[in-house]
Every structure is written in structure tokens, then in C-alpha cells.
């Protein structure tokens, strides 16, 4: 695990964007793993700017989002499929349908999760996975207690995650869905390169456990210690508990 302490989230975003641009230059049909939430927004801003400047094209690339709330209506603005379209996909030149997410409205959840895993495998797997990290150490929505061998499945969001995400739902914790579909920890670990970004003191404990704690399902991001190519981009505050 390579840890880079940067002077802020914008710098982290630029560095992550550099890695993605370099990947697309050597492999235009690369498969990207896309996270939602606040942390990756500077990455998407940097990539949109570099696309506008004619420096990078996503025309042959594919994308797979990490997770999705269960039961949010198709037109809900906080549905992750909508969020990733707004924040990133619509600002660059992906081909139609090149970006997919787990179907949080599926009648048959188990079948939807299995077909999502199959779609990622059929695309050749993820070349570069963007990740944020929850204050409780989750990646994707693999909450504490998640199996380190898990694949895409339904999970219950912890109270802490629902509190953390209430800011996207008018500060109404009860408006945050209780369940999600998420790539599993083993799904995430199958990506060839993982780039995790975190900023702010709220992430410091999780970053400390991820990098320096014992590998444990209770701090799911610790599984990344077993991955051969992880780049962690953190600001000073998120790095403040590192020893
Ligand atoms: C989002 C996701 C989550 C977030 C995490 C941090 O797709 O998978 O793991 O990355 O909850 O969220 P932010 O970045 O909003 O602090």
C-alpha cells in the first residue's frame, strides 16, 4: 500500500486523475470502478477538465459503480446511478450504456447481484477502482462485519453510515435508505489497481486502521493490505492518526 499525504482533497483528486489519464492513454478501453459520495468529486472535476482540454477520452472505456441504494425511485436525485451521471458521466464522452451500476430496484435482488458480477467479469475486470472510505472503515458499502470474501450482495447500512449520509437527504436520517447493493470486498480486491482518497479528520481513525490495523472484517478496508497495488491519497487531517 502506497500512502501519499497531499496538501488537500483537490491535489489528491488531481493525482488520482493523473493515474486514470495515464491508464486511458495506454489502454483506451480500460474498465474503471467508480465510487460515489463526496470524496471522489475532485477526481471527477479534474477528469472533466482534462476531457474538456482534449487530454483524455472515455469513448472506449467502461465503468462500473460500486454500490446503489435499494428502493430509491429511478428519478430520485440521490440514486447513485443518477449521481454518477450528474457528477461524472455526463461531463465526459462515455458511450451510451458504457457505465453500469447494481440495480437497486430489481425484483430479484440475488439475480441482479449475480448478473452484475458477471457483467464485470465479461468486461475483463476492473483496471482501476476509485474508492472512498467510510468513517467506520467501510469501502463500497461493506460495513463492519462484512466477509472479506464477499461478492456483490445486499447489505444493511449501519446507523453511523445513515447518519453520515443524511447530508445528502436534507439532514433527515430516516430518509436515508436502510439497504444497499454493494460490490463485495472480494469484488473490489479483484481490481488491478485501487486508488483510495480520503480527507478530513473524520476519516483519520478509519485510515489508521486501514493502513496500520490488524486485518479484520470489523474494519473492512483493512483487506486492502492484501492487495498488491493500492494507492492511498490522503490530506494531512485524514493522515493525522497514522503512526
Ligand atoms: C460510495 C461508497 C462509500 C463512500 C464512503 C465515503 O459509492 O462506496 O464507500 O466512498 O461512504 O463517503 P464520502 O466520500 O461521502 O465521505
UniProtKB/TrEMBL annotation:
<feature type="active site" description="Proton acceptor; for enolization step">
    <location>
        <position position="67"/>
    </location>
</feature>
<comment type="pathway">
    <text>Amino-sugar metabolism; N-acetylneuraminate degradation; D-fructose 6-phosphate from N-acetylneuraminate: step 5/5.</text>
</comment>
<comment type="similarity">
    <text>Belongs to the glucosamine/galactosamine-6-phosphate isomerase family. NagB subfamily.</text>
</comment>
<dbReference type="GO" id="GO:0019262">
    <property type="term" value="P:N-acetylneuraminate catabolic process"/>
</dbReference>
<feature type="site" description="Part of the allosteric site">
    <location>
        <position position="156"/>
    </location>
</feature>
<feature type="site" description="Part of the allosteric site">
    <location>
        <position position="153"/>
    </location>
</feature>
<comment type="function">
    <text>Catalyzes the reversible isomerization-deamination of glucosamine 6-phosphate (GlcN6P) to form fructose 6-phosphate (Fru6P) and ammonium ion.</text>
</comment>
<keyword id="KW-0119">Carbohydrate metabolism</keyword>
<dbReference type="Pfam" id="PF01182">
    <property type="entry name" value="Glucosamine_iso"/>
</dbReference>
<keyword id="KW-0378">Hydrolase</keyword>
<protein>
    <recommendedName>
        <fullName>Glucosamine-6-phosphate deaminase</fullName>
        <ecNumber>3.5.99.6</ecNumber>
    </recommendedName>
</protein>
<dbReference type="InterPro" id="IPR037171">
    <property type="entry name" value="NagB/RpiA_transferase-like"/>
</dbReference>
<dbReference type="GO" id="GO:0006043">
    <property type="term" value="P:glucosamine catabolic process"/>
</dbReference>
<keyword id="KW-0021">Allosteric enzyme</keyword>
<feature type="domain" description="Glucosamine/galactosamine-6-phosphate isomerase">
    <location>
        <begin position="15"/>
        <end position="227"/>
    </location>
</feature>
<dbReference type="InterPro" id="IPR006148">
    <property type="entry name" value="Glc/Gal-6P_isomerase"/>
</dbReference>
<dbReference type="InterPro" id="IPR004547">
    <property type="entry name" value="Glucosamine6P_isomerase"/>
</dbReference>
<feature type="active site" description="For ring-opening step">
    <location>
        <position position="136"/>
    </location>
</feature>
<dbReference type="GO" id="GO:0042802">
    <property type="term" value="F:identical protein binding"/>
</dbReference>
<dbReference type="GO" id="GO:0006046">
    <property type="term" value="P:N-acetylglucosamine catabolic process"/>
</dbReference>
<feature type="active site" description="Proton acceptor; for ring-opening step">
    <location>
        <position position="138"/>
    </location>
</feature>
<dbReference type="GO" id="GO:0005975">
    <property type="term" value="P:carbohydrate metabolic process"/>
</dbReference>
<dbReference type="InterPro" id="IPR018321">
    <property type="entry name" value="Glucosamine6P_isomerase_CS"/>
</dbReference>
<feature type="site" description="Part of the allosteric site">
    <location>
        <position position="146"/>
    </location>
</feature>
<dbReference type="GO" id="GO:0004342">
    <property type="term" value="F:glucosamine-6-phosphate deaminase activity"/>
</dbReference>
<feature type="site" description="Part of the allosteric site">
    <location>
        <position position="155"/>
    </location>
</feature>
<feature type="active site" description="For ring-opening step">
    <location>
        <position position="143"/>
    </location>
</feature>
<dbReference type="GO" id="GO:0005737">
    <property type="term" value="C:cytoplasm"/>
</dbReference>
Amino acid at each position: 500500500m502506497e500512502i501519499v499525504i497531499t496538501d488537500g482533497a483537490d491535489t489528491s483528486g488531481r493525482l488520482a486523475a493523473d493515474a486514470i489519464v495515464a491508464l486511458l492513454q495506454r489502454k483506451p478501453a480500460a474498465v474503471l470502478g467508480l465510487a460515489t459520495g463526496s470524496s471522489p468529486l475532485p477526481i471527477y472535476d479534474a477528469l472533466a477538465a482534462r476531457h474538456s482540454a482534449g487530454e483524455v477520452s472515455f469513448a472506449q472505456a467502461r465503468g462500473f459503480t460500486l454500490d446503489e441504494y435499494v428502493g430509491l425511485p429511478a428519478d430520485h436525485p440521490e440514486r447513485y446511478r443518477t449521481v454518477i451521471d450528474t457528477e461524472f458521466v455526463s461531463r465526459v464522452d462515455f458511450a451510451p450504456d458504457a457505465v453500469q451500476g447494481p440495480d437497486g430496484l430489481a425484483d430479484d435482488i440475488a439475480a441482479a447481484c449475480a448478473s452484475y458480477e458477471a457483467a464485470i467479469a465479461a468486461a475483463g475486470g476492473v483496471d482501476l477502482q476509485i474508492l472512498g472510505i467510510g468513517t467506520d472503515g467501510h469501502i463500497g458499502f461493506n460495513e463492519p462485519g462484512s466477509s472479506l470474501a464477499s461478492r456483490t450482495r445486499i447489505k444493511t447500512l449501519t446507523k453511523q453510515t445513515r447518519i453520515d449520509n443524511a447530508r445528502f437527504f436534507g439532514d433527515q436520517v430516516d430518509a436515508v435508505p436502510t439497504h444497499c447493493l454493494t460490490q463485495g470486498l472480494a469484488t473490489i480486491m479483484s481490481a488491478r489497481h485501487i486508488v483510495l482518497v480520503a480527507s478530513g479528520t473524520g476519516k483519520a481513525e478509519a485510515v489508521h486502521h486501514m493502513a496500520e490495523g490488524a486485518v479484520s472484517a470489523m474494519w473492512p478496508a483493512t483487506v486492502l493490505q492484501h492487495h498488491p497495488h493500492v494507492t492511498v491519497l490522503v490530506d494531512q487531517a485524514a493522515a493525522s492518526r497514522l503512526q
